Amino acid sequence: MQKGGMIMNRSFNKDKFNNVIKAVSIILRLSVIFLYVLLGFLFIAAVIFAFLPKDILDFDLANLENLNVQFTNIMYILRDGSFIGIINLKWLLVLLFFTISVNVLFIQLILLKLRKIVSDVKEENPFSVKNIHRLKFISIAYFVSSFVLPTVNGWLFTVGANTFKIFDATFNFSLNFSAIFMGVILLILAYVFDYGASLQEDYDLTV
To answer: CA 194, CA 131: separation in Å to the nearest integer?
Structure first.
Protein backbone atom coordinates (compact mmCIF):
# COMPACT_ATOMS: atom_id res chain seq x y z
CA MET A 1 0.00 0.00 0.00
CA GLN A 2 1.42 3.42 -0.96
CA LYS A 3 0.46 6.56 0.96
CA GLY A 4 2.19 9.96 0.84
CA GLY A 5 5.14 8.59 -1.06
CA MET A 6 5.74 5.88 1.54
CA ILE A 7 5.06 2.18 1.21
CA MET A 8 3.13 0.76 4.16
CA ASN A 9 2.93 -2.97 4.76
CA ARG A 10 0.13 -4.36 6.87
CA SER A 11 1.50 -7.23 8.92
CA PHE A 12 -0.63 -10.10 10.10
CA ASN A 13 0.34 -12.17 13.13
CA LYS A 14 -0.79 -15.59 11.95
CA ASP A 15 0.46 -17.40 15.05
CA LYS A 16 -1.56 -15.14 17.35
CA PHE A 17 -4.62 -15.56 15.14
CA ASN A 18 -4.28 -19.35 15.18
CA ASN A 19 -3.97 -19.35 18.98
CA VAL A 20 -7.13 -17.26 19.32
CA ILE A 21 -9.03 -19.56 16.95
CA LYS A 22 -7.85 -22.63 18.89
CA ALA A 23 -8.98 -21.07 22.19
CA VAL A 24 -12.37 -20.14 20.73
CA SER A 25 -12.73 -23.66 19.31
CA ILE A 26 -12.06 -25.22 22.72
CA ILE A 27 -14.52 -22.87 24.46
CA LEU A 28 -17.22 -23.63 21.88
CA ARG A 29 -16.66 -27.38 22.16
CA LEU A 30 -16.92 -27.30 25.97
CA SER A 31 -19.98 -25.05 25.81
CA VAL A 32 -21.73 -27.40 23.36
CA ILE A 33 -21.02 -30.40 25.60
CA PHE A 34 -22.28 -28.54 28.68
CA LEU A 35 -25.50 -27.50 26.95
CA TYR A 36 -26.13 -31.05 25.73
CA VAL A 37 -25.85 -32.24 29.35
CA LEU A 38 -28.11 -29.41 30.52
CA LEU A 39 -30.73 -30.19 27.86
CA GLY A 40 -30.69 -33.86 28.89
CA PHE A 41 -31.16 -32.91 32.53
CA LEU A 42 -34.02 -30.54 31.71
CA PHE A 43 -35.78 -33.15 29.58
CA ILE A 44 -35.48 -35.84 32.26
CA ALA A 45 -36.63 -33.42 34.97
CA ALA A 46 -39.65 -32.36 32.91
CA VAL A 47 -40.66 -35.99 32.34
CA ILE A 48 -40.24 -36.83 36.04
CA PHE A 49 -42.33 -33.87 37.20
CA ALA A 50 -45.00 -34.60 34.58
CA PHE A 51 -45.51 -38.12 35.98
CA LEU A 52 -45.26 -37.27 39.67
CA PRO A 53 -48.49 -37.48 41.66
CA LYS A 54 -50.08 -34.07 41.80
CA ASP A 55 -50.44 -33.99 45.59
CA ILE A 56 -46.67 -34.21 46.13
CA LEU A 57 -46.16 -30.76 44.64
CA ASP A 58 -48.76 -28.93 46.72
CA PHE A 59 -47.29 -25.76 48.19
CA ASP A 60 -48.63 -23.69 51.09
CA LEU A 61 -48.36 -20.01 50.21
CA ALA A 62 -48.15 -19.14 53.90
CA ASN A 63 -44.51 -20.30 53.75
CA LEU A 64 -43.72 -17.16 51.76
CA GLU A 65 -44.80 -14.74 54.49
CA ASN A 66 -41.37 -14.68 56.13
CA LEU A 67 -39.51 -14.50 52.85
CA ASN A 68 -37.48 -11.38 52.12
CA VAL A 69 -36.39 -10.62 48.57
CA GLN A 70 -33.40 -8.41 47.77
CA PHE A 71 -32.93 -6.89 44.34
CA THR A 72 -29.77 -4.80 43.83
CA ASN A 73 -29.65 -2.66 46.98
CA ILE A 74 -33.37 -2.81 47.77
CA MET A 75 -34.84 -5.25 50.28
CA TYR A 76 -38.48 -6.23 49.72
CA ILE A 77 -40.31 -7.53 52.79
CA LEU A 78 -43.49 -9.42 51.96
CA ARG A 79 -46.50 -8.40 54.01
CA ASP A 80 -48.20 -10.87 56.32
CA GLY A 81 -51.36 -12.25 54.78
CA SER A 82 -50.26 -11.47 51.24
CA PHE A 83 -50.17 -15.16 50.38
CA ILE A 84 -53.00 -17.40 51.47
CA GLY A 85 -53.96 -20.88 50.33
CA ILE A 86 -52.36 -23.93 48.77
CA ILE A 87 -51.30 -24.12 45.15
CA ASN A 88 -49.99 -26.97 43.02
CA LEU A 89 -46.63 -26.46 41.31
CA LYS A 90 -46.65 -29.50 39.03
CA TRP A 91 -47.45 -27.94 35.68
CA LEU A 92 -45.70 -24.68 36.55
CA LEU A 93 -42.45 -26.61 37.03
CA VAL A 94 -43.01 -28.56 33.80
CA LEU A 95 -43.56 -25.26 31.99
CA LEU A 96 -40.44 -23.83 33.64
CA PHE A 97 -38.28 -26.70 32.39
CA PHE A 98 -39.87 -26.44 28.93
CA THR A 99 -39.18 -22.69 28.76
CA ILE A 100 -35.57 -23.08 29.85
CA SER A 101 -35.14 -25.89 27.31
CA VAL A 102 -36.39 -23.71 24.45
CA ASN A 103 -33.98 -20.92 25.39
CA VAL A 104 -31.04 -23.32 25.80
CA LEU A 105 -31.88 -25.06 22.51
CA PHE A 106 -31.70 -21.74 20.68
CA ILE A 107 -28.27 -21.03 22.16
CA GLN A 108 -27.13 -24.56 21.32
CA LEU A 109 -28.13 -24.21 17.66
CA ILE A 110 -26.16 -20.97 17.43
CA LEU A 111 -23.08 -22.50 19.08
CA LEU A 112 -23.15 -25.55 16.80
CA LYS A 113 -23.13 -23.35 13.70
CA LEU A 114 -20.42 -21.09 15.16
CA ARG A 115 -18.31 -24.13 15.96
CA LYS A 116 -18.45 -25.28 12.33
CA ILE A 117 -17.63 -21.76 11.11
CA VAL A 118 -14.58 -21.63 13.38
CA SER A 119 -13.58 -25.10 12.17
CA ASP A 120 -13.55 -23.86 8.56
CA VAL A 121 -11.54 -20.82 9.61
CA LYS A 122 -8.95 -23.14 11.22
CA GLU A 123 -8.71 -24.96 7.88
CA GLU A 124 -8.12 -21.57 6.18
CA ASN A 125 -11.43 -21.72 4.35
CA PRO A 126 -13.49 -18.92 5.98
CA PHE A 127 -15.41 -17.94 2.83
CA SER A 128 -16.78 -21.40 2.14
CA VAL A 129 -20.30 -21.80 0.80
CA LYS A 130 -21.19 -23.76 3.95
CA ASN A 131 -20.17 -20.83 6.16
CA ILE A 132 -22.38 -18.51 4.14
CA HIS A 133 -25.32 -20.87 4.66
CA ARG A 134 -24.48 -21.16 8.37
CA LEU A 135 -24.51 -17.39 8.82
CA LYS A 136 -27.84 -17.18 7.03
CA PHE A 137 -29.17 -19.97 9.28
CA ILE A 138 -28.08 -18.08 12.41
CA SER A 139 -29.68 -14.92 11.03
CA ILE A 140 -32.99 -16.71 10.44
CA ALA A 141 -32.74 -18.29 13.90
CA TYR A 142 -32.52 -14.82 15.44
CA PHE A 143 -35.51 -13.64 13.40
CA VAL A 144 -37.54 -16.64 14.61
CA SER A 145 -36.39 -16.18 18.21
CA SER A 146 -37.54 -12.55 18.14
CA PHE A 147 -41.15 -13.72 18.51
CA VAL A 148 -40.82 -17.32 19.76
CA LEU A 149 -38.72 -16.62 22.88
CA PRO A 150 -40.78 -13.60 24.07
CA THR A 151 -43.91 -15.71 23.63
CA VAL A 152 -42.58 -18.69 25.60
CA ASN A 153 -40.99 -16.54 28.33
CA GLY A 154 -44.06 -14.32 28.62
CA TRP A 155 -46.28 -17.40 28.91
CA LEU A 156 -44.16 -18.70 31.80
CA PHE A 157 -44.22 -15.33 33.58
CA THR A 158 -47.99 -15.02 33.18
CA VAL A 159 -48.68 -18.55 34.45
CA GLY A 160 -46.26 -18.07 37.35
CA ALA A 161 -47.78 -14.76 38.42
CA ASN A 162 -51.32 -16.12 38.25
CA THR A 163 -50.35 -19.34 40.05
CA PHE A 164 -48.83 -17.49 43.01
CA LYS A 165 -51.59 -14.86 42.82
CA ILE A 166 -49.02 -12.09 43.06
CA PHE A 167 -51.07 -9.95 40.68
CA ASP A 168 -53.38 -10.45 37.71
CA ALA A 169 -51.15 -10.98 34.69
CA THR A 170 -52.14 -11.10 31.03
CA PHE A 171 -49.80 -11.87 28.16
CA ASN A 172 -49.29 -9.19 25.51
CA PHE A 173 -47.19 -10.24 22.53
CA SER A 174 -44.15 -8.11 21.66
CA LEU A 175 -41.17 -8.61 19.40
CA ASN A 176 -37.58 -8.71 20.61
CA PHE A 177 -36.08 -5.96 18.48
CA SER A 178 -32.56 -6.72 19.71
CA ALA A 179 -32.85 -10.19 18.16
CA ILE A 180 -34.19 -8.68 14.93
CA PHE A 181 -31.27 -6.25 14.82
CA MET A 182 -28.80 -9.10 15.40
CA GLY A 183 -30.48 -11.08 12.62
CA VAL A 184 -30.10 -8.17 10.20
CA ILE A 185 -26.41 -7.72 11.09
CA LEU A 186 -25.70 -11.42 10.56
CA LEU A 187 -27.61 -11.46 7.28
CA ILE A 188 -25.49 -8.54 6.04
CA LEU A 189 -22.37 -10.38 7.22
CA ALA A 190 -23.50 -13.49 5.30
CA TYR A 191 -23.72 -11.47 2.07
CA VAL A 192 -20.30 -9.94 2.82
CA PHE A 193 -18.93 -13.49 3.09
CA ASP A 194 -20.71 -14.34 -0.15
CA TYR A 195 -19.04 -11.40 -1.87
CA GLY A 196 -15.68 -12.40 -0.36
CA ALA A 197 -16.14 -15.94 -1.69
CA SER A 198 -16.87 -14.52 -5.15
CA LEU A 199 -13.70 -12.40 -5.07
CA GLN A 200 -11.67 -15.39 -3.88
CA GLU A 201 -13.05 -17.52 -6.72
CA ASP A 202 -12.19 -14.83 -9.30
CA TYR A 203 -8.68 -14.54 -7.84
CA ASP A 204 -8.13 -18.31 -7.98
CA LEU A 205 -9.21 -18.37 -11.63
CA THR A 206 -6.80 -15.60 -12.61
CA VAL A 207 -3.78 -17.10 -10.84
So the answer is: 9
Output the CA angle 103-31-197, nearest 5 degrees: 90
Interatomic CA distance for residues 182 and 190, integer angstroms: 12
**Residue 129, in any domain of the structure:** yes
Q: Where are the alpha helices (DSSP H) in the chain?
A: 14-51, 90-122, 129-164, 177-206
CA contacts within 13 A on the Cβ side of 202: 6
Q: Which domain holds residue 109?
A: 12-50+95-201
Whether 20 is covered by a domain: the verdict is: yes
Rounded CA-CA distance 186/181 in Å is: 9
- 129-164 and 90-122 helices cross at what angle (nearest 10)? 160
Whether 46 contacts 101, CB under 8 Å:
yes
62 DSSP assignment:
G
Residue 84, in any domain of the structure: no
How many separate domains does the chain show? Answer: 1
In a domain, 173, yes or no: yes
DSSP tag of 63:
G
pLDDT tens, residue order, the chain (207 aa):
444 444 445 677 788 888 889 999 999 999 999 999 999 999 898 888 888 888 888 877 666 666 665 555 555 555 555 566 777 788 888 888 889 999 999 999 999 999 999 998 888 888 888 999 999 999 999 999 999 998 888 888 787 777 766 656 666 778 899 999 999 999 999 998 888 878 777 766 676
